[in-house]
Structures are given as C-alpha cells and as structure tokens.
Amino acid sequence: MLALAQEVLSTPRNPRQEVQALQDTIYVVGGKWRLPIINSLCNGNKRFRDIERSIPGITTRMLSRELKEMEANQLIKRTVTPDTPVLVEYTPTDYCHSFGSIILEMIRWGKAHSEHLKKAAD
After folding, report:
1. How does pLDDT run across 76-87, given as a tens digit for each residue?
2. In angstroms, what CA-CA distances link 9 with 14, 78, 109?
3. What is the residue extent of each domain of the chain?
4. Which of 113, 94, 99, 111 lies closest to 39 in space, CA to CA?
5. Where's the HTH hxlR-type domain (predicted)?
C-alpha cells in the first residue's frame, strides 16, 4: 500500500493537484448511474434496452443522458448500423477498461464494508 501511495502521490505532496485529480475522477464516473452502466456494458450488454433492464431503477431519460455524457468523456463508443431496423450498440472503450481494476476494487471494498457492518451489528 505504501509503495502504491508513493507511486501515485506527488513528492513533495501537492494537495491542490491531488484534489483536482480526485475531482476529475468523480466528475467522469461519479453519480448514481455511471458505474452501474459501466458494469452492465462490461458484462456484455450492448443495446440500450438490455442496459436499461440490467440496472434496476434507472429511467430511459437518465440512461440516455448518461450514455451521451459517457460518450463525450470517451468511456463508451456508440455504433449505429443502418439496417432496418437501425441497430445502435454501446461498447466500453479501452479507456473505460482502464478503470476496470478500480471498479473491481470498489466492489471488493463494498462487500467487505457490508460484512464489517454486519459484524458490528452483532
């Protein structure tokens, strides 16, 4: 852990730069829906309705807005195939996949946190 901290953090420390990096990350992947959308895409859902069905509680409007933002941030690629009917697919970019280990670590932490709370309640 110390080695990772030394690799990531500035020497000497630059708190302003570190806070800006955290804010940039939260801006790109923050909010209630972006990580579940990334997770859905990485689990093989490519079509709008499949993504929507895989995320309980998300509205059509919200999914549409989030997908547009994610495309603008180069996390996903939108491909339109002009068949009849028109086929629209969303796929995670390599840039999005670079975030994969962080998402897995967040899932791991979330599971451990849940267990921690259960033990504290006993």
Report:
1. 999 999 988 899
2. 8, 35, 21
3. 34-97
4. 99
5. 14-118
